[in-house]
Design a protein that fits this description.
Shape: globular
Helix content: 25-40%
CATH superfamily of the largest domain: LCP protein
Structural class: alpha+beta
Distance between the termini: 32 Å
Low-confidence stretches: none
Largest sheet: 4 strands, mixed
Number of helices: 7
Amino acid sequence: MLFNEAHRPIIKESKPNFDKETKVIWQIKVTTEIEDTNKDINVTQDSFNMYISGIDTAGNIDNVSRSDVNMIVTVNPVTKNILLTSIPRDYYVTLADANAQDKLTHSGLTGVDNTMKTVENLLNVKMHFYARVNFSSLVKVVDALGGIDVKSDRDLKAWTGKDIKEGWNHMDGETALAYARCRHAYQDGDSHRVRNQQDVLMAIITKMISPALLTNYTNILKAVEESY
Protein backbone atom coordinates (compact mmCIF):
# COMPACT_ATOMS: atom_id res chain seq x y z
CA MET A 1 0.00 0.00 0.00
CA LEU A 2 1.36 3.41 -1.00
CA PHE A 3 -0.22 6.55 0.46
CA ASN A 4 0.48 10.02 1.79
CA GLU A 5 0.93 9.93 5.58
CA ALA A 6 -1.46 12.88 5.76
CA HIS A 7 -4.25 10.46 4.85
CA ARG A 8 -3.60 8.19 7.84
CA PRO A 9 -6.18 9.91 10.12
CA ILE A 10 -8.83 9.52 7.41
CA ILE A 11 -8.07 5.81 7.01
CA LYS A 12 -8.24 5.31 10.79
CA GLU A 13 -11.74 6.78 10.87
CA SER A 14 -13.02 3.67 9.07
CA LYS A 15 -10.22 1.28 10.20
CA PRO A 16 -9.47 2.08 13.89
CA ASN A 17 -6.88 -0.71 14.15
CA PHE A 18 -5.01 0.35 11.03
CA ASP A 19 -1.79 1.24 12.90
CA LYS A 20 -1.72 -2.15 14.64
CA GLU A 21 -2.52 -4.15 11.50
CA THR A 22 0.06 -2.48 9.24
CA LYS A 23 3.74 -1.58 9.38
CA VAL A 24 5.66 1.15 7.57
CA ILE A 25 8.46 -0.45 5.55
CA TRP A 26 9.59 2.51 3.43
CA GLN A 27 9.13 6.28 3.42
CA ILE A 28 10.16 9.22 1.29
CA LYS A 29 9.85 12.86 2.28
CA VAL A 30 8.87 15.40 -0.37
CA THR A 31 9.61 19.08 0.24
CA THR A 32 7.87 21.78 -1.75
CA GLU A 33 8.47 25.52 -1.73
CA ILE A 34 5.45 27.57 -0.65
CA GLU A 35 4.57 30.58 -2.78
CA ASP A 36 5.38 33.94 -1.21
CA THR A 37 1.98 35.31 -0.18
CA ASN A 38 3.24 38.81 0.64
CA LYS A 39 1.56 41.01 -1.96
CA ASP A 40 3.64 44.12 -1.15
CA ILE A 41 1.06 45.29 1.35
CA ASN A 42 1.94 48.24 3.57
CA VAL A 43 0.75 46.79 6.88
CA THR A 44 0.79 50.22 8.55
CA GLN A 45 -1.58 51.77 6.01
CA ASP A 46 -3.41 49.05 4.06
CA SER A 47 -5.95 46.52 5.29
CA PHE A 48 -4.69 42.96 4.92
CA ASN A 49 -5.83 39.38 5.40
CA MET A 50 -3.96 36.70 7.30
CA TYR A 51 -5.06 33.11 6.86
CA ILE A 52 -4.76 30.81 9.86
CA SER A 53 -4.67 27.11 9.05
CA GLY A 54 -4.85 24.83 12.07
CA ILE A 55 -3.79 21.30 11.15
CA ASP A 56 -5.01 18.29 13.11
CA THR A 57 -1.70 16.90 14.27
CA ALA A 58 1.01 17.39 16.88
CA GLY A 59 4.77 17.43 16.49
CA ASN A 60 6.60 18.90 13.51
CA ILE A 61 4.81 21.83 11.88
CA ASP A 62 6.22 20.67 8.52
CA ASN A 63 3.86 17.68 8.55
CA VAL A 64 1.06 17.86 6.00
CA SER A 65 -2.39 17.19 7.40
CA ARG A 66 -6.02 18.23 7.26
CA SER A 67 -6.82 21.91 7.83
CA ASP A 68 -9.35 21.68 10.66
CA VAL A 69 -9.17 25.36 11.63
CA ASN A 70 -9.76 27.83 8.81
CA MET A 71 -9.84 31.43 9.92
CA ILE A 72 -9.32 34.73 8.13
CA VAL A 73 -7.96 37.57 10.25
CA THR A 74 -8.70 40.88 8.52
CA VAL A 75 -6.74 43.78 9.99
CA ASN A 76 -7.38 47.47 9.37
CA PRO A 77 -4.27 49.24 10.71
CA VAL A 78 -5.84 52.69 10.36
CA THR A 79 -9.02 52.05 12.37
CA LYS A 80 -7.28 49.45 14.57
CA ASN A 81 -10.11 46.97 13.90
CA ILE A 82 -9.74 43.21 13.53
CA LEU A 83 -12.39 41.03 11.87
CA LEU A 84 -12.33 37.25 12.35
CA THR A 85 -14.05 35.06 9.76
CA SER A 86 -14.17 31.31 10.37
CA ILE A 87 -15.19 28.60 7.92
CA PRO A 88 -16.20 25.24 9.44
CA ARG A 89 -13.91 22.44 8.36
CA ASP A 90 -16.66 20.28 6.82
CA TYR A 91 -17.97 22.92 4.40
CA TYR A 92 -18.07 21.51 0.87
CA VAL A 93 -16.04 23.72 -1.44
CA THR A 94 -14.28 23.41 -4.77
CA LEU A 95 -10.67 22.51 -4.06
CA ALA A 96 -8.25 24.67 -6.04
CA ASP A 97 -5.88 21.86 -6.97
CA ALA A 98 -8.55 19.35 -7.98
CA ASN A 99 -11.35 21.52 -9.37
CA ALA A 100 -13.74 19.18 -7.57
CA GLN A 101 -15.89 19.54 -4.47
CA ASP A 102 -14.74 18.14 -1.15
CA LYS A 103 -14.56 19.14 2.50
CA LEU A 104 -12.47 22.25 3.12
CA THR A 105 -10.39 20.36 5.70
CA HIS A 106 -9.13 18.02 2.97
CA SER A 107 -7.54 20.94 1.10
CA GLY A 108 -4.75 20.84 3.67
CA LEU A 109 -3.68 17.39 2.52
CA THR A 110 -1.82 18.99 -0.38
CA GLY A 111 -0.50 21.98 1.56
CA VAL A 112 -1.48 25.31 3.03
CA ASP A 113 -1.15 27.05 -0.35
CA ASN A 114 -3.97 24.88 -1.69
CA THR A 115 -6.16 25.78 1.31
CA MET A 116 -5.55 29.49 0.78
CA LYS A 117 -6.23 29.35 -2.95
CA THR A 118 -9.40 27.37 -2.31
CA VAL A 119 -10.71 30.02 0.10
CA GLU A 120 -9.57 32.87 -2.15
CA ASN A 121 -11.65 31.37 -4.95
CA LEU A 122 -14.60 30.74 -2.64
CA LEU A 123 -14.78 34.23 -1.15
CA ASN A 124 -13.12 36.25 -3.93
CA VAL A 125 -10.58 37.75 -1.52
CA LYS A 126 -6.79 37.77 -1.37
CA MET A 127 -4.74 36.22 1.43
CA HIS A 128 -1.66 38.33 2.01
CA PHE A 129 -0.08 36.31 4.82
CA TYR A 130 -0.64 33.03 6.59
CA ALA A 131 0.18 31.21 9.81
CA ARG A 132 0.17 27.45 10.06
CA VAL A 133 -0.51 26.10 13.54
CA ASN A 134 -0.76 22.59 14.97
CA PHE A 135 -1.58 21.21 18.41
CA SER A 136 1.99 21.50 19.69
CA SER A 137 2.61 25.07 18.51
CA LEU A 138 -0.64 26.35 20.06
CA VAL A 139 0.30 24.84 23.41
CA LYS A 140 3.81 26.35 23.19
CA VAL A 141 2.52 29.84 22.35
CA VAL A 142 -0.06 29.93 25.15
CA ASP A 143 2.40 28.60 27.72
CA ALA A 144 5.06 31.09 26.59
CA LEU A 145 2.54 33.85 27.23
CA GLY A 146 1.98 32.58 30.76
CA GLY A 147 -1.53 31.42 29.90
CA ILE A 148 -4.53 33.27 28.51
CA ASP A 149 -7.92 34.36 29.88
CA VAL A 150 -10.96 33.04 28.03
CA LYS A 151 -14.66 33.45 28.89
CA SER A 152 -16.77 30.30 28.47
CA ASP A 153 -20.55 30.56 28.11
CA ARG A 154 -21.11 27.34 30.09
CA ASP A 155 -19.56 24.70 32.32
CA LEU A 156 -18.10 21.87 30.30
CA LYS A 157 -15.69 18.99 30.47
CA ALA A 158 -13.46 19.01 27.44
CA TRP A 159 -12.65 15.81 25.58
CA THR A 160 -9.29 15.62 27.40
CA GLY A 161 -11.05 15.66 30.77
CA LYS A 162 -10.20 19.30 31.47
CA ASP A 163 -12.88 21.08 33.53
CA ILE A 164 -13.84 24.48 32.13
CA LYS A 165 -16.16 26.68 34.17
CA GLU A 166 -18.79 29.14 32.98
CA GLY A 167 -17.25 32.60 33.00
CA TRP A 168 -13.59 33.54 32.88
CA ASN A 169 -10.95 30.81 32.91
CA HIS A 170 -7.18 31.23 33.04
CA MET A 171 -5.99 28.57 30.61
CA ASP A 172 -2.60 27.00 30.09
CA GLY A 173 -1.68 25.65 26.66
CA GLU A 174 -3.26 22.21 27.08
CA THR A 175 -6.52 23.68 28.37
CA ALA A 176 -6.67 26.25 25.56
CA LEU A 177 -6.14 23.46 23.02
CA ALA A 178 -8.87 21.33 24.59
CA TYR A 179 -11.28 24.29 24.59
CA ALA A 180 -10.50 25.13 20.97
CA ARG A 181 -11.12 21.54 19.89
CA CYS A 182 -14.29 20.96 21.94
CA ARG A 183 -17.39 20.35 19.83
CA HIS A 184 -19.41 17.40 21.17
CA ALA A 185 -20.31 19.35 24.31
CA TYR A 186 -22.39 21.75 22.23
CA GLN A 187 -25.69 21.27 20.45
CA ASP A 188 -24.48 23.30 17.47
CA GLY A 189 -21.19 21.40 17.39
CA ASP A 190 -18.72 22.79 14.88
CA SER A 191 -20.43 26.19 14.71
CA HIS A 192 -19.79 26.69 18.42
CA ARG A 193 -16.28 25.31 18.14
CA VAL A 194 -15.22 27.99 15.64
CA ARG A 195 -16.45 30.64 18.12
CA ASN A 196 -14.27 29.04 20.80
CA GLN A 197 -11.32 29.12 18.41
CA GLN A 198 -11.90 32.83 17.81
CA ASP A 199 -12.06 33.43 21.57
CA VAL A 200 -8.72 31.66 22.03
CA LEU A 201 -7.09 33.66 19.23
CA MET A 202 -8.35 36.99 20.59
CA ALA A 203 -7.13 36.03 24.06
CA ILE A 204 -3.68 35.35 22.57
CA ILE A 205 -3.69 38.70 20.76
CA THR A 206 -4.82 40.50 23.92
CA LYS A 207 -2.02 38.91 25.91
CA MET A 208 0.57 39.66 23.20
CA ILE A 209 -0.18 43.39 23.25
CA SER A 210 -0.03 43.54 27.04
CA PRO A 211 3.04 44.66 29.05
CA ALA A 212 3.72 40.98 29.81
CA LEU A 213 5.11 40.63 26.29
CA LEU A 214 7.96 43.01 27.06
CA THR A 215 9.40 40.78 29.76
CA ASN A 216 8.91 37.47 27.94
CA TYR A 217 9.26 38.29 24.26
CA THR A 218 12.20 35.94 23.59
CA ASN A 219 10.26 32.88 24.77
CA ILE A 220 7.23 33.96 22.74
CA LEU A 221 9.28 34.46 19.57
CA LYS A 222 10.83 31.04 20.06
CA ALA A 223 7.36 29.49 20.47
CA VAL A 224 5.97 31.02 17.26
CA GLU A 225 9.04 30.71 15.02
CA GLU A 226 7.83 27.39 13.57
CA SER A 227 4.35 28.69 12.68
CA TYR A 228 5.33 29.97 9.26
